[in-house]
Design a protein that fits this description.
With 384 residues, this protein is α/β, with parallel strands linked by helices. The chain folds into 2 domains: 124 residues, Alpha-Beta Complex (Aspartate Aminotransferase, domain 1), CATH 3.90.1150; 252 residues, Aspartate Aminotransferase, domain 2. The chain is built from 12 helices and 13 strands. The strands form 3 sheets. Strands 2-8-7-6-5-3-4 form a 7-stranded mixed sheet, sandwiched between helices. The protein has a 4-stranded antiparallel sheet with strand order 9-10-13-12, with helices on one face. A two-stranded parallel sheet has the order 1-11.
Length: 384
């Protein structure tokens, strides 16, 4: 199989990551922070070290505000539901994933908040000035995706952060597509919080993620339960990270996240980025030469910031059929549909049918790309 669905979940995972994760879990797989015996203390030490490593990786100042979650969706919900109050106004964009849009829509439908959704231009980029112009006296939060999961466009998050700082607004960045592929610095962005998954470009296991908070970010717990601390109190602890981490940790997943982060750092983000850019240009240029193919997003991939994501449609063909042909006839795995980002597809005119998304990863080869381009050429020719 040629796997080109890495924007959903990266695969395969590095074998050294899996082997080390399983070995560590076999040795210390008890409840971390729930006992004073050696194995429990060792498990807790692994979790503490992972927080410290993640804080350094994302240029966050306080490791205790690295909150382990079940996914980016979990972290984004935790942030949105925990940061907002009745009467607040939120600014977001049409590039967002449903993990942002649905909790915001829920709060708006309940009459708790109001929202303004900023459009993107024809190339797939948000204008920071449009965010500035949408700010109201009651605006509390600006939320922006770092990179679109449909178009691959990398947004001007640092400029948006400066606007948020100017107006003293909370700033939440969805780093689901960017974390592990390009540098993500909370300090440079001026972010109040970032959320990311472990199973995408960090190459960790599914069921993992983090919400990373700045020291000034005010957030309420949205779930309650055991933390292994202050057990005599019926109130949720107020200290970080315990106030936001009710229940036993996904210890095996956190070990995998730690091992994957180490693997990435040894390989080097700059090297990973360079390899993916080469694949992106090879894919984009190859697909652009095929008659009968509709391509979406920025035409210029060399001067405008972009991830290795390519979304297309074959004229006259249903995307589901194209995906099935790629899988059945060519053993190429892609993602078809709306990619959990309905407003993007509304904006690019594909809401009624969706589209076909190609997303190379660390283990994709140039030969894989050439075979995918050849397959799409043959499919387009069959629909003339």
């Amino acid at each position: 199989m040629i796997y080109l669905d890495n924007a959903a979940t990266t695969w395969p995972k590095p074998k050294s990551v899996l082997d080390t994760m399983i070995s560590l879990y076999a040795e210390t797989g008890v409840s971390p922070g729930r006992g004073s015996y050696d194995a429990a203390l060792e498990a807790e030490a692994h979790i503490t070290k992972t927080r410290e490593d993640l804080a350094a990786f994302f240029h966050a100042s306080d490791p205790q505000r690295v909150i382990f979650t079940a996914s980016a969706t979990d972290g984004l919900n935790m942030a949105i539901l925990g940061m907002l109050s009745p009467g607040d106004h939120v600014i977001t964009t049409r590039l967002e994933h449903n993990s942002v849009l649905r909790p915001l829509f829920y709060l708006q439908e309940e009459g708790i908040i109001t929202t303004t959704i900023i459009p993107f231009d024809g190339d797939g980029y948000v204008d920071p000035q449009a965010i500035r112009e949408a700010i109201r006296p009651e605006t509390k939060l600006v939320e922006v995706t770092h990179a679109s999961n449909v178009l691959g466009t990398i947004q001007p998050v640092e400029e948006i952060g400066r606007i948020c700082a100017e107006f003293d607004l909370e700033y939440l960045v969805d780093a689901s597509q960017s974390a592990g592929r390009i540098p993500v610095s909370m300090e440079a962005m001026g972010a109040s919080a970032i959320a990311f998954p472990g199973h995408k470009s960090i190459y960790g296991p599914t069921g993992t993620g983090c919400l990373v908070l700045s020291p000034s970010c005010e957030i309420r717990p949205t779930r309650f339960g055991g933390t292994g601390t202050a057990s005599e109190s019926l109130r949720q602890p107020q200290d970080f990270p315990h106030c936001l981490e009710a229940g036993t940790h996904n210890y095996m997943g956190i070990l995998g996240l730690s091992c994957a982060l180490k693997y990435l750092q040894e390989k080097g983000l700059e090297k990973i980025r360079g390899e993916e850019e080469a694949l992106m240009h090879r894919l984009h240029d190859g697909l652009a030469g095929i008659r009968g193919l509709e391509m979406y997003g920025a035409v210029d991939r060399r001067t405008r910031p972009h991830l290795a994501v390519e979304t297309v449609n074959v004229k006259g063909a249903d995307p589901d059929d194209v995906g099935a042909i790629l899988d059945g006839d060519f053993e190429i795995a892609v993602r078809v549909g709306l990619h959990c980002a309905p407003l993007v597809h509304e904006s690019i005119g594909t809401a009624g049918r969706g589209a076909v998304r190609f997303s190379p990863g660390m283990f994709t080869t140039p030969e894989d790309i050439d075979l995918a381009v050849e397959a799409m050429g043959r499919i387009c020719a069959s629909y003339k």
